[in-house]
């Protein structure tokens, strides 16, 4: 323990350090400017992704059979391009950022996981996935995209700025969440809960400012409205306890199973035939996955195509309609999309799966205020799939303006995440370990010493 600092505070020195140093102002300008650029890039990515999905839906409206040809071919092409030119752009993007933050990773390997080149590749490949109607989200990719933009700014920082690559990656990843969901507070919580491990105290305020600024960029473009509108949950009382507990348990189990399936599929270590086929013929396997997604889309009348945002809005609106079994079909379509190897996030599909489960529970229990149970389903499944309960709670609260359900949403997120941990380890942390080089083995005596030292 360090002795307390008894040096008197010199106001003149503090003023010069904070306001009179050109290096300090350059640092602030670079970090804030990079955050603004990252926010604008994510906004542009959002526009491109939504228009790509719109073009696919126009194609699917011409004939239900066209996606059966288009989606498999494009899925195979995306995987071929990813594996040939941008391997680090595959998957969600969040595991890559988490791996890049690991102290065991040498600086020379970091550009293989996060860079401006990979950010540009991620934008094009994820948008192409939505152009093919694949069941994926853009929020996870936004984390890697914004982190790549922020990390590029390091070259313009003055020496001794105190802003490390770790800080820029945390700020960029969190800025991606803030701008993608139009939820600045969720970006800050994501940085604390998922990304930050050793935050530098001196620059923490500057980093948080950059995260919030990226979110405000999205707010200024899309307006201050919530992503899914304002829900009307009805009275929050004892009548909600039964349906709320049921949807919490259901989404906790379903989200844990979803995470377990993703880990088993993406690790590629299972001895089953599909995993061997994926490893040996990745492009052909992707074509098969694309065909499966197209068949599911055709069976559901196109409801499972894309991110699922329209289905979520329809469920929250109470006047919309989704096909029977939508939750199961969307679950399978999202899993198969991720398994194919295309760049794909799971945040938005997870929200739509959770919304459908909440809708089903409200119908089964005959609860008259379905939007409340749907919101709980959204936060429960997202928290269980990601095992990031605080981030999930804040995202859903900000996206549906559910401030009247703060305690209910928080309790649902924590319980569902706890249930999920019984079924699966944390998804993103486990996937990040795949990106890292093997840990150096220690002698048995060293491991025993380390284990003893870790005991309280």
What's the short version?
The protein has helices at 11-20, 22-62, 66-85, 94-100, 116-131, 139-152, 165-181, 184-195, 204-222, 241-267, 273-280, 282-299, 309-317, 326-340, 347-365, 370-386, 389-399, 406-423, 427-435, 444-453. It has 456 residues and is mainly α.
Characterization of this structure:
It is a single chain. This protein is mostly helical and 456 residues long. The chain has two domains: 24-222, Orthogonal Bundle (Clc chloride channel); 238-435, Clc chloride channel (Orthogonal Bundle), CATH 1.10.3080. Helices cover 70% and strands 0% of the residues. It has 20 helices and no strands. It has helices at residues 11-20, 22-62, 66-85, 94-100, 116-131, 139-152, 165-181, 184-195, 204-222, 241-267, 273-280, 282-299, 309-317, 326-340, 347-365, 370-386, 389-399, 406-423, 427-435, 444-453. The chain is globular and about 65 Å long. The relative contact order is 0.14. The model is unreliable at 198-202 and 441-456 (pLDDT under 50).
Rough outline? globular
Level-1 CATH class name of the largest domain? Mainly Alpha
The count of DSSP E runs of length 2 or more, i.e. the number of strands, is: 0
The fourth-level CATH homologous superfamily of the largest domain is: Clc chloride channel
CATH fold-level assignment of the largest domain: Clc chloride channel
Span between N and C termini? 17 Å
Total discrete domains = 2
Q: Give the count of helical stretches.
A: 20
Largest β-sheet summary: none
Strand content: under 5%
CATH architecture descriptor name of the largest domain: Orthogonal Bundle
The low-confidence runs, each spanning 5 or more residues with pLDDT under 50, are 198-202, 441-456
């Amino acid at each position: 323990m360090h002795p307390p600092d008894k040096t008197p505070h010199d106001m003149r020195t503090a003023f010069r350090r904070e306001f009179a140093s050109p290096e300090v102002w350059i640092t602030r300008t670079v970090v804030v400017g990079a955050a603004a650029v990252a926010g604008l890039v994510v906004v542009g990515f959002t526009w491109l992704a939504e228009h790509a999905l719109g073009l696919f839906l126009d194609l699917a409206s011409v004939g239900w059979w066209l996606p059966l040809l288009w989606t498999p071919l494009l899925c195979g092409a995306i995987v071929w391009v990813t594996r040939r030119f941008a391997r680090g752009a595959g998957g969600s993007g969040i595991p890559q950022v988490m791996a890049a933050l690991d102290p065991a990773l040498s600086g020379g390997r970091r550009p293989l996981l996060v860079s401006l080149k990979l950010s540009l590749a991620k934008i094009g490949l994820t948008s192409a996935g939505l152009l093919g109607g694949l069941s994926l989200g853009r929020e996870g990719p936004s984390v890697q995209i914004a982190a790549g933009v922020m990390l590029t700014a390091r070259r313009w920082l003055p020496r001794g700025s105190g802003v490390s690559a770790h800080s820029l990656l945390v700020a960029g990843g969190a800025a991606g969440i803030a701008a993608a969901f139009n939820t600045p507070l969720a970006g800050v919580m994501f940085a604390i809960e998922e990304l930050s491990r050793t935050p530098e105290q001196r620059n923490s305020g500057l980093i948080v400012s950059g995260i919030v600024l990226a979110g405000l960029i999205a707010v200024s473009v899309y307006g201050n409205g919530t992503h899914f509108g304002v829900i009307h949950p009805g009275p929050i009382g004892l009548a909600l306890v039964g349906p709320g507990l049921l949807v919490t348990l259901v989404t906790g189990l379903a989200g844990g199973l979803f995470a377990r399936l993703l880990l088993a599929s993406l690790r590629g270590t299972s001895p089953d035939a599909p995993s061997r086929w994926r490893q040996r013929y990745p492009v052909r396997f992707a074509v098969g996955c694309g065909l499966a997604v197209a068949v599911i889309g055709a069976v559901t009348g196109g409801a499972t195509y894309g991110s699922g945002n329209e289905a979520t809005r329809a469920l929250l609106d109470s006047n919309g309609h989704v096909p029977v079994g939508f939750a199961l079909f969307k679950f399978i379509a999202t899993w198969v999309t991720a398994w194919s190897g295309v760049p794909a996030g799971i945040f938005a599909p997870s929200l739509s799966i959770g919304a459908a489960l909440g809708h089903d529970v409200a119908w089964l229990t005959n609860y008259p205020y379905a939007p409340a149970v749907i919101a709980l389903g959204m936060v429960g499944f997202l928290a269980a799939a990601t095992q990031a309960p605080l981030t999930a709670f804040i995202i859903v609260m900000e996206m549906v303006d559910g401030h009247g359900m703060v305690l209910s949403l928080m309790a649902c997120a924590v319980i569902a995440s706890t249930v999920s941990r019984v079924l699966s380890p944390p998804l993103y942390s486990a996937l990040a370990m795949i990106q890292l080089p093997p840990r150096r083995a220690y002698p048995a005596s060293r491991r025993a010493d380390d284990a003893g030292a870790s005991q309280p």
